[in-house]
Amino acid sequence: MRSGAGKFAFGKSVYFAGHSWHNYDVPGKSDAARNKMSPAERKLRSELTRLLYSEGMLRGNLSLRERTCGKPTCHCMTRGDKHQALYVVLRDEGEFRQVFVPRHLHDVVRKWVENHKRSRDLLEAISKLHYEKIRKREL
Protein backbone atom coordinates (compact mmCIF):
# COMPACT_ATOMS: atom_id res chain seq x y z
CA MET A 1 0.00 0.00 0.00
CA ARG A 2 1.34 3.44 -0.86
CA SER A 3 1.74 6.36 1.49
CA GLY A 4 -1.42 8.36 2.03
CA ALA A 5 -3.53 5.22 1.70
CA GLY A 6 -6.69 5.14 3.68
CA LYS A 7 -6.92 8.91 4.09
CA PHE A 8 -9.78 11.05 2.92
CA ALA A 9 -7.88 14.31 2.96
CA PHE A 10 -7.85 16.94 0.28
CA GLY A 11 -4.89 16.83 -2.05
CA LYS A 12 -3.99 13.20 -1.35
CA SER A 13 -4.47 9.99 -3.26
CA VAL A 14 -6.54 7.15 -1.91
CA TYR A 15 -5.65 3.60 -2.88
CA PHE A 16 -8.07 0.71 -2.48
CA ALA A 17 -8.19 -2.72 -4.09
CA GLY A 18 -5.74 -1.79 -6.81
CA HIS A 19 -7.58 1.41 -7.76
CA SER A 20 -6.65 4.96 -6.91
CA TRP A 21 -8.85 7.94 -6.40
CA HIS A 22 -7.53 11.45 -6.13
CA ASN A 23 -9.03 14.10 -3.93
CA TYR A 24 -7.79 17.18 -5.72
CA ASP A 25 -7.13 20.38 -3.86
CA VAL A 26 -10.22 22.48 -3.44
CA PRO A 27 -9.61 26.23 -3.15
CA GLY A 28 -9.85 27.32 0.47
CA LYS A 29 -9.78 23.74 1.78
CA SER A 30 -6.99 21.87 3.53
CA ASP A 31 -6.45 18.98 5.90
CA ALA A 32 -7.75 21.34 8.56
CA ALA A 33 -11.19 21.09 6.90
CA ARG A 34 -11.84 17.94 8.92
CA ASN A 35 -11.41 19.95 12.10
CA LYS A 36 -14.20 22.28 10.98
CA MET A 37 -16.68 19.41 10.57
CA SER A 38 -19.32 18.87 13.16
CA PRO A 39 -18.79 15.88 15.46
CA ALA A 40 -21.79 14.20 13.82
CA GLU A 41 -20.28 14.56 10.34
CA ARG A 42 -16.86 13.33 11.51
CA LYS A 43 -18.49 10.28 13.07
CA LEU A 44 -20.46 9.50 9.88
CA ARG A 45 -17.41 9.94 7.65
CA SER A 46 -15.26 7.79 9.92
CA GLU A 47 -17.77 4.96 9.86
CA LEU A 48 -18.10 5.23 6.07
CA THR A 49 -14.31 5.16 5.67
CA ARG A 50 -14.09 2.08 7.90
CA LEU A 51 -16.68 0.32 5.76
CA LEU A 52 -14.93 1.23 2.52
CA TYR A 53 -11.49 0.04 3.59
CA SER A 54 -11.98 -2.85 5.96
CA GLU A 55 -14.66 -5.07 4.49
CA GLY A 56 -16.30 -6.11 1.24
CA MET A 57 -19.37 -4.47 -0.17
CA LEU A 58 -22.02 -5.78 -2.57
CA ARG A 59 -25.05 -4.04 -4.05
CA GLY A 60 -27.97 -6.42 -4.27
CA ASN A 61 -30.63 -8.28 -2.36
CA LEU A 62 -30.53 -11.74 -0.89
CA SER A 63 -33.17 -14.25 -1.88
CA LEU A 64 -33.60 -17.44 0.16
CA ARG A 65 -35.36 -20.08 -1.87
CA GLU A 66 -36.81 -23.38 -0.71
CA ARG A 67 -37.67 -26.36 -2.87
CA THR A 68 -38.04 -30.10 -2.93
CA CYS A 69 -35.59 -32.20 -4.92
CA GLY A 70 -38.05 -34.89 -5.96
CA LYS A 71 -36.23 -37.89 -4.50
CA PRO A 72 -38.89 -40.00 -2.74
CA THR A 73 -36.61 -40.91 0.21
CA CYS A 74 -35.19 -37.44 0.80
CA HIS A 75 -36.07 -35.51 3.96
CA CYS A 76 -37.69 -32.81 1.83
CA MET A 77 -40.30 -35.34 0.72
CA THR A 78 -40.63 -37.44 3.89
CA ARG A 79 -40.48 -34.73 6.59
CA GLY A 80 -41.33 -31.67 4.55
CA ASP A 81 -37.98 -29.94 5.32
CA LYS A 82 -37.23 -28.22 2.04
CA HIS A 83 -33.74 -27.60 0.66
CA GLN A 84 -32.65 -23.98 0.98
CA ALA A 85 -30.55 -22.03 -1.49
CA LEU A 86 -29.34 -18.45 -1.13
CA TYR A 87 -29.02 -16.18 -4.16
CA VAL A 88 -27.81 -12.63 -4.51
CA VAL A 89 -30.02 -10.69 -6.94
CA LEU A 90 -29.20 -7.34 -8.54
CA ARG A 91 -30.16 -5.26 -11.51
CA ASP A 92 -27.36 -4.85 -14.05
CA GLU A 93 -27.76 -2.93 -17.32
CA GLY A 94 -31.53 -3.08 -17.01
CA GLU A 95 -31.62 -6.83 -16.44
CA PHE A 96 -32.01 -8.78 -13.22
CA ARG A 97 -29.01 -10.96 -12.49
CA GLN A 98 -28.79 -13.64 -9.84
CA VAL A 99 -25.92 -15.72 -8.53
CA PHE A 100 -26.10 -18.77 -6.30
CA VAL A 101 -24.22 -18.30 -3.02
CA PRO A 102 -22.55 -21.48 -1.71
CA ARG A 103 -23.34 -22.28 1.92
CA HIS A 104 -19.78 -21.59 3.12
CA LEU A 105 -20.08 -17.99 1.78
CA HIS A 106 -23.50 -17.15 3.26
CA ASP A 107 -22.17 -15.15 6.22
CA VAL A 108 -19.63 -13.25 4.13
CA VAL A 109 -22.10 -12.31 1.39
CA ARG A 110 -24.75 -11.30 3.94
CA LYS A 111 -22.19 -8.96 5.56
CA TRP A 112 -21.22 -7.47 2.19
CA VAL A 113 -24.84 -6.71 1.31
CA GLU A 114 -25.40 -5.26 4.78
CA ASN A 115 -22.27 -3.09 4.38
CA HIS A 116 -23.52 -1.68 1.08
CA LYS A 117 -26.87 -0.77 2.61
CA ARG A 118 -25.16 0.80 5.62
CA SER A 119 -22.83 2.85 3.38
CA ARG A 120 -25.85 4.13 1.43
CA ASP A 121 -27.48 5.17 4.72
CA LEU A 122 -24.29 6.93 5.84
CA LEU A 123 -24.00 8.83 2.55
CA GLU A 124 -27.63 9.90 2.88
CA ALA A 125 -27.02 11.16 6.42
CA ILE A 126 -23.94 13.14 5.32
CA SER A 127 -25.95 14.58 2.43
CA LYS A 128 -28.67 15.72 4.85
CA LEU A 129 -26.08 17.48 7.01
CA HIS A 130 -24.75 19.32 3.95
CA TYR A 131 -28.26 20.20 2.83
CA GLU A 132 -28.86 21.79 6.24
CA LYS A 133 -25.59 23.75 5.95
CA ILE A 134 -26.73 25.17 2.63
CA ARG A 135 -30.21 25.88 3.92
CA LYS A 136 -28.83 27.71 6.96
CA ARG A 137 -26.08 29.39 4.89
CA GLU A 138 -23.42 27.93 7.20
CA LEU A 139 -20.75 27.12 4.65
Please state how the strands of the largest beta sheet are arranged side by side: 3-4-5
Low-confidence stretches: 1-13, 22-30
- Helix percentage: 25-40%
Q: What separation lies between the terminal Cα atoms?
A: 34 Å
Principal-axis shape equals elongated
> Helix tally?
3
**Number of strand elements:** 5
Order of helices and strands: EEHEHEEH
Q: How much of the polypeptide forms β-strand, as a percent range?
A: 15-25%
Based on secondary structure, the structural category is alpha+beta
Would you kindly provide a brief summary of this structure?
This protein is 36% helix and 23% strand.
Outline the structure in words.
The structure is a single chain. It contains 3 helices and 5 strands; from the N terminus they run ββαβαββα. It is of the alpha+beta class. Among the domains are: 1-36, no CATH class; 63-102, no CATH class. The strands form 2 sheets. The chain has a 3-stranded antiparallel β-sheet with strand order 3-4-5, covered by helices on one side. A hairpin with a 2-residue loop joins strand 4 and strand 5 (95-101). The radius of gyration is 22 Å and the shape is elongated. The protein starts with 12 loop residues before the first strand and ends with a helix. Mean pLDDT is 79; it is low at 1-13 and 22-30.
